[in-house]
Amino acid sequence: MPTHSTNSLFRCLLRWTLAAATLAVLIPVSGCRQDMQNQPKMIPQRESRFFASGRSVRPQVLGTVARGQLDADRYYYTGLIDNKAQDAMPFPVTMTVLRRGQERFDIYCTPCHSRVGNGRGMIVERGYKPAGNLLEPRILQEPLGHYFDVISHGYGAMPDYAAQIATQDRWAIVAYIRALQLSQNATLQDVPAAMNIQTLAEVSQQMGYAPSFPQGWTLPALTNVPSAGDMIPDAKLPGTNQPTGPEAANHGVAGKQSRAKGTKK
Ligand code: HEC
Fold first, then answer.
1. Which of 62-66, 224-228, 246-250 has the lowest mean pLDDT?
2. Which long-range contacts (CB under 8 A, 24 or more apart) does 122-126 make?
3. Closest C-alpha among 152, 147, 80 to residue 113
4. 229 and which of 53, 124, 164, 251 could share a cystine (Cβ 3.0–4.6 Å)?
5. Could you give the CA distance from residue 172 to residue 121 in angstroms, rounded to a whole number?
6. How far apart are CA 168 and CA 236, in angstroms?
């Protein structure tokens, strides 16, 4: 039956043609990456042919300031006027400001300066370079802007805290330092007449502490405490990895003690 065999030959051909056509469509589609790979975008610092200059962006108009970066109040952002620290707060000090300052001071400064600011914080007790005693006469006389500057840029062995502490909070800490200094040198005359004042001895007695409590304590000597030097691997091997920055000076009391006794980590 010729009709039948012609018919099946035709169907067979049609099937092959369809398969080939499907393949012909699929192959280029799968090889083509027209999705997210080719976006009409500019990559910073990369050449572009969009502008004649070859830049991908226009140069900034002179004097342009990004939103939120105006920093017009120079004193607020630096603590300096004509490069000199000033003894003034850039905003009024309220109890809320002082509480915030106390909270931030306790978080960021006490590890080195201690809660009362005498520079005997826990890290210093463990061998870090002695931190400034915020109650000593020279530092006491420094203007507020100096404290702000020290927090913002660091001072000697002290690292800066500009990245960790927002401008507003740095000033709150500055205000709290003054409160701390006052509190540590206060006399009875500084307290308003109508206020009832108790001595530390009276308070500690009420709280059930030993009578010797207000007399100050002698801290036990440090033993077996690793110093900063002990914590730097290979620091003691000659010619290797010797600290050269501020930490070079940090082989303090604890380090000397443990080395003198020959104790190991
Ligand atoms: C990692 C330890 C460390 C921390 C944390 C630290 N300091 Fe200091 N600070 C020091 C050291 C060390 C010095 C003494 C630097 C020197 O004299 O070389 C110092 C000195 C100072 C001084 C005295 C500067 C002067 O005029 O002599 C002030 C003020 C001060 N720090 C404030 C702060 C405040 C506020 C904070 C918290 C935001 C803080 N420090 C956190 C280590 C620290």
1. 246-250
2. 124/252, 125/219, 125/222, 125/254, 126/222, 126/225, 126/226, 126/227, 126/252, 126/254
3. 147
4. 251
5. 20
6. 43
**Tens-place pLDDT, residues 110-122:** 999 999 999 999 9
pTM of the model: 0.65
What does the pLDDT look like over 180-239, one tens digit per residue?
A: 999 988 888 888 888 888 888 899 999 998 888 888 777 777 666 555 555 555 545 454
Q: Which residues line ligand 1 (CB under 6 A)?
A: 108-109, 111-113, 123, 128-129, 131-132, 134, 139, 142, 147, 150-151, 155-158, 161, 173
Going along the chain from its start, the domains and CATH numbers come out as 74-186 (1.10.760.10), 228-260 (no CATH)
Q: Exposed (0-12), middle (13-18) or buried (19+): which is 169, by Cβ within 10 Å?
A: buried
**CA-nearest residue, atom 29 of ligand 1:** 147
- Predicted pLDDT of residue 174: 98
